Amino acid sequence: MSLIRKPWTSSENTKSRVILASGSKNRQLLLNLLGISFEVISSYIDEKSIQEENPIQKVQKIALLKASQVASQHEGIIIAADTFAVINNEHYEKPIDLDQAKRMLLKLSGQALRSLTGICVINTVRHTTRVTYRALDIQVADLTDDIIEQYITTKPVTEWAAAYNPLDEFSAQLFHSVNGYTNGLEYGLPLDIVVEELRATNISLDPLLIENVQRRSK
Fold first, then answer.
1. Helix, coil or strand: residue 118
2. Which of 6, 25, 61, 168 has its CA 20 to 30 A from that of 33?
């Protein structure tokens, strides 16, 4: 069953207006799974122009800039995020095509890497800004050409940073281990931060829907 986001309407209180500053289908899916009414207003920043050597600082800075851009023009609870993988001090974003995805996975084969997700939540009504991150430490298996070919032709690898989703069921054969906070990261958003910030604004969330997302992320 496909999930359709429930749009925010002008009749709703601005205090409960949720804006996702991202065109990511995975991030939209997470908010749908939580039963939240929200708008999508994508931010546009030149991520390559951000000069920051520390990957943790960089992923948070990108998330902050994305949220800030939307918050400068719209009121509500603005959620923005960024994800990339780090290996040998090299950052891997989403591949532009399947050829690049294949090259990325070949480089990751047999390596230890860290997947970082930065998140920023700006509440223009409460005048609060929260910026933080979550990390996954991943040991990649030795990938054969056949496994990589099957993966890139059956999975939406161009929608994933470094061409993989560590919590996708099929992806299990790509990794020896995945350690760290996982809830919600399958969708590119840390579940705990999203839930905490929405509840802080008295937005009602169904505990059963939250548990369902948690089960999906294990």
1. strand
2. 61
**Alpha carbon distance 176, 127 (integer Å):** 43
pLDDT tens digits for 41-73?
A: 999 888 777 888 899 999 999 999 999 999 999
Give, to the nearest 10 degrees, the angle between helix 98-108 and helix 145-154.
Answer: 140
Q: How many other C-beta atoms can be found within 10 angstroms of the C-beta atom of residue 5?
A: 15
Tens of pLDDT along 25-46? Answer: 889 999 999 999 999 999 988 8
Mean pLDDT, range 87-108, rounded to an integer: 93
Ordered DSSP codes for 57-126: HHHHHHHHHHHHHHHTT--SEEEEEEEEEEETTEEE---SSHHHHHHHHHHHTT-EEEEEEEEEEEETTT
Would you give the DSSP letter of residue 37?
A: B
Delineate the domains of the chain, giving CATH numbers in brackets. Answer: 14-216 (3.90.950.10)
pTM of the predicted structure, to 2 decimals: 0.87
Tell me which residues are annotated as active site: 82
Cα 177 to Cα 32, 162, 171, 173, 190, distances in angstroms: 29, 17, 11, 10, 19
